[in-house]
Amino acid sequence: GAVHYYEFVLKEKNFTKLCNTESILVVNDSFPGPVIRVHKGDTVYVNVHNQGYYGVTIHWHGVKQPRNPWSDGPEYITQCPIEPGSNFTYEVIFSDEEGTLWWHAHSDWTRATVHGAIVILPPVGSTYPFAKADEEEIVVIAAWYDGNLKELVDEDIATGEDLPHSVANTINGEPGDFCPCSKGTTYRWMVDYGKTYLFRVVNAVMNAELFFAVAEHNLTVVGMDGHYIKPISTEYIMISPGQTMDVLLTANQPLGHYYLATRQYSSEDASVTGFDHVNTTAILQYKGNYTIPSSPSFPSALPLYLDFMAALTFTSRIRSLANKEHPVNVPLNITERMYITVSMNSLYCPTCTKANDNETLVSTLNNISWVNPSTDVLHAYYRNISGVYTTDFPNYPPSFYNFTNDELTDESIVLTRQGTKVKVLNYGETVEIVFQGTGVLKGSVNHPMHLHGYSFYIIGTGFGNFDNETDPKGFNVVDPPELNTFGVPKKGWLAIRFVANNPGVWFWHCHFDRHMSWGMNTAFIVKNGPTSETSIREPPDYMPSCKVPVKSWIQ
Ligand code: C2O
Ligand code: CU
Predict the structure, then answer these.
(1) Of all atoms in ligand 1, which is nearest to the CA of residue 61?
(2) Same domain for 500 and 369?
(3) In terms of domains, do 80 and 148 share one?
(4) Of 231, 243, 314, 365, which is least packed with CB atoms within 10 Å of its CB?
């Protein structure tokens, strides 16, 4: 493949939105940041210059980076932060991904403003598995915060408050007509009647799943997370944070203007939630000579904030293409089975004296709440440095109980401990993970789980407790979608499979940043295979070292 070079300059810049001017950290003065455009099989060198005020790293979300964890990016997992005034060159290796992915900062909450799309075209000389669109457009949906997010997060962490809530979402940087002081800048596409457009949609929002629809226009979803899927014809989509979708739209409606709108989706119970955003909109406007209606029409098919069934109806339709050119390789004989609870918990605090001190909220995988080490796991693993992490991540939950019961108040279930526990896999192992959502602390929402270094097959999902006798009988090994991020349904389960054929250290976590901050994370160490072609590459000699001791958000 071809080689491309990008310069990313990270710097604070003033942006005026929603009646306020904020200084935010962005790449190359733009929000969202620059688009990386490649063909499948290319390599990209991105030289990141940090001219901001604190350490930052960048992650190439969904890019598998074969044998190259050194450039994966999550801070304290595969590298130490790029300190202000220094630079670091990432080598981003594209292997089997094709479609849309994205890049984002992977340091605290910096990704709110430091992100952009990655477009991966078919290899030179080949083409899409669907009729080529006339034009391609980027749709990056992000969250906007009132105030300096870094300060807000640090403050909340210091005081144990809930982590920040956004004040609006944006489409390509603009909140749209329904938000204060925003009408003049709504993002607008001028379209030609009869043409077909490929929209590359990225959910870069920090903490929310989204519905998305275009007034009067049908959508056809043809790709997801850098893999093609069987076309889904639909009036709306539901996209989780971290996910990307390739969506075709034909401009075949009467000349006029139409809202393209997103609305937050929450899987919470109606009784728990009270949080909704004003709808975020952009406009599709037909070119030509006609009298434009005074206001664009709004998509009536856009589901409501709490429409759980609408979300499920869409996600249950996703299937991989599964043809000769795009085959499915689901492992059938499993060598490593993991059963993992996904929960909100309280932190066990042995030194607390007051009765309520056990109430610090954390989130967990198998009742362990992740804390970042003070130097990165990859460095410690590669150089055999002990004391940085332990390898006793539990495969099975601490006890068996009715996970989805709402009244799980027993202290042994609710209270949890912190740790930096990773799971070690041998090269080539065939892995099945069943994630089990729980009702602990009534914290039941979907959790969009994301794995670095891999994509995985979604072979099954369902409600209630996973039943090891009956549920595997319904597993789809014929055309399951191959994704990098997918929701564990609230009070339900999700089964995935992949082959551990990418040696390295790979983070996995919930892609709600609130849950990631609270510890819903761990890492796989995938050992080297027998040959140099199945082993981790040599590290570049310019890896940053950890200068500042990392702070855990818990005091
Ligand atoms: Cu897009 Cu570890 O994340
Ligand atoms: Cu979560």
Answers:
(1) 1
(2) yes
(3) no
(4) 231
Ligand closest to the CA atom of residue 101: 1
pLDDT at residue 555 in the model = 35
Overall number of domains in the chain: 3
What is d(CA 211, CA 259) in angstroms, rounded to the nearest whole number?
14
Cα 76 to ligand 2 centroid, rounded to whole Å: 20
114 and 135 assigned to the same domain = no
Nearest CA, atom 3, ligand 1: 61
Structural domain of residue 301, as residue ranges? Answer: 130-320
pLDDT value at residue 324: 94
Q: Are residues 391 and 487 in the same domain?
A: yes
Q: Is 507 in the pocket of ligand 1 (CB under 6 A)?
A: yes
* DSSP string for residues in 266-300: --S-TTT-----PPEEEEEEE-SSSPPPSSPBP-T
Tell me, yes or no, whether 137 and 114 share the same domain.
no
Q: For residue 508, give the ligand 1 atom closest to its CA.
A: 2
385-409 exposure pattern, b = at least 16 Cβ within 10 A, e = fewer? eeebbeeebbeebeeebebbeeebe
Residue ranges of the chain with per-residue pLDDT less than 70: 270-276, 351-359, 397-412, 442-443, 548-555
Per residue in 14-64, pLDDT (tens digit) is: 999 999 999 999 999 999 999 999 999 999 999 999 999 999 999 999 999
- Residue 115 Cβ < 6 Å to ligand 1: no
Does residue 84 sit in helix, strand or coil?
Answer: coil
Q: What is the DSSP letter of 64?
A: -
What atom in ligand 1 is closest to the CA of residue 104?
1
| Pairing mode of beta strands 429-437, 336-347 | parallel
Q: Does one domain contain both 285 and 208?
A: yes
Same domain, 201 and 297: yes
Q: How close is the Cα of 124 to the center of ligand 2, in Å?
A: 39
ipTM of the complex model: 0.99
**462 beta partners:** 493
Which CATH number goes with the domain that contains 58? 2.60.40.420
The per-residue pLDDT for range 232-253, each reduced to its tens digit, is: 999 999 999 999 999 999 999 9
Same domain, 361 and 270: no
